[in-house]
Amino acid sequence: MSNLIGRLLALLTVWRLSRRSDSEPSAQEQPDISPLEDPSKREVPNSRKAELVVAILVTVGAASGFAFTAVYILNSHANQLLGVTMGGAFVALAAAAIVAGLHVVPQETSVEERDSLLEEGEPEEIVEMVESGGEGVSRRVLLTGAAGVAGIGLTTTVGSAIASLGPRMRNIHKVPWSRGVPIVNEQGKIFHASEIQVGSFYTGLPAGHFWEDLGAPLLLVRLPRHYIHLPPTRPLAKWAPHGIMAYSKICTHAGCAISLYRYPVYAPTSVGSPAFTCPCHYSTFLPGYGGTVLFGPAGRPLPQLPVTINPNGHLVAGGHFDEDVGPAWFDVRVPKNFNRNG
Question: How many domains does the chain have?
């Protein structure tokens, strides 16, 4: 049996070898293998028409950039026009770059061996390569001028957009509050003391001043006497008449507008004192304790504004904030003209 199996394996091996020899071509039948053709080539378009198209597109991009700036200055709320002008600037410049890349600058295909990163003499070769990129361009002055104007237009576009990234930083330590300035609501009506109810909070603004200034908005609340524990340097008659107090609405952590107010409504289950909360990072301040920070990342209390009630019952500012308004990273300071002793 073993002899039979050995003979079968020998026959199978001979059969496989014969099939392999039949499938391989002979030396005479081997195909000729030619070396790879060198794909290196260089073409100079020298197209005056393409150069004109590029100049027109770059000019359109510059005009769109200047148009964006004009719209931003005249009507910054025209979002559609702002989007069209800014988009037009980028689209036109992108189209100019595409046309220039295909039909203006030299088209070159080259194959190079990989050498060391940098050898002596190569910097000069790099400079020559950069300079050769302008070969065949006949309207260099036109294209250079158009590119310069487009750069200015794009710079004004980006600069205008950056100007809207946050509150105005000019005169950040100057606030529109001083003794005698009436406190009005968002409709411009002066607050009457009777309008400030316990359990609610109100937004106060300076009468006759620019309301978008960082130090303009106030938080107005009225607290019962048992919730008020101001520092000794803040007498209630000036800082909390009839329990009414005013604080800056700008959080001292990151400059967000405080818009949440917590007030205990049921003594058996309520815990803690009335508190303001910033919705951005949940810094919590206690108005009854002079704006002290209860929780969160804020590094200092809310600045408090003294309040007085005039003979007509209207609320007016009694002076300046006890400290500068805004986040701690705005280089806050105590106002020079403020008297801590009242």
Answer: 2
Candidate from 79-93, 119-133, 194-208, 282-296 with smallest mean pLDDT:
119-133
Question: What angle do the packed helices 79-103 and 140-162 form, to 10 degrees?
Answer: 150
Give the domain extent around 189.
Answer: 183-330
Task: Report the alpha-carbon distance of residue 247 to residue 322 in Å, rounded.
Answer: 10
Distance between CA atoms of 41 and 34, rounded to whole angstroms?
Answer: 20
User: What values do phi and psi take at 220, rounded to 5?
Assistant: -110, 130
Number of H helices, E strands in the chain: 6, 13
pTM above 0.70, yes or no: no
CA 74 to chain centroid, in Å, comes to 23
| Centroid of chain to Cα 51 | 36
Evaluate whether residue 21 is within a structural domain: no
Q: In this prediction, what percent of the chain has a pLDDT beyond 70?
A: 67
One-letter amino acid identity for 230? Answer: L
319 touches 306 (CB < 8 A): yes
Regarding whether 269 and 145 lie in a shared domain, the answer is no
Q: Are 317 and 183 in contact (CB under 8 A)?
A: yes
* Angle, CA 94 vertex, CA 87 and CA 63 arms, to 5°: 55
- CA gap 64, 275 in Å, rounded: 49
3-class SS of residue 295: strand
Q: Grade residue 336 by pLDDT with cuts at 50, 70 and 90.
A: very low
Asked if 306 contacts 238 with a C-beta cutoff of 8 angstroms, the reply is yes
Rounded alpha-carbon distances, angstroms, from residue 112 to 135, 156, 314: 22, 42, 84
Residue 316 lies in a domain: yes
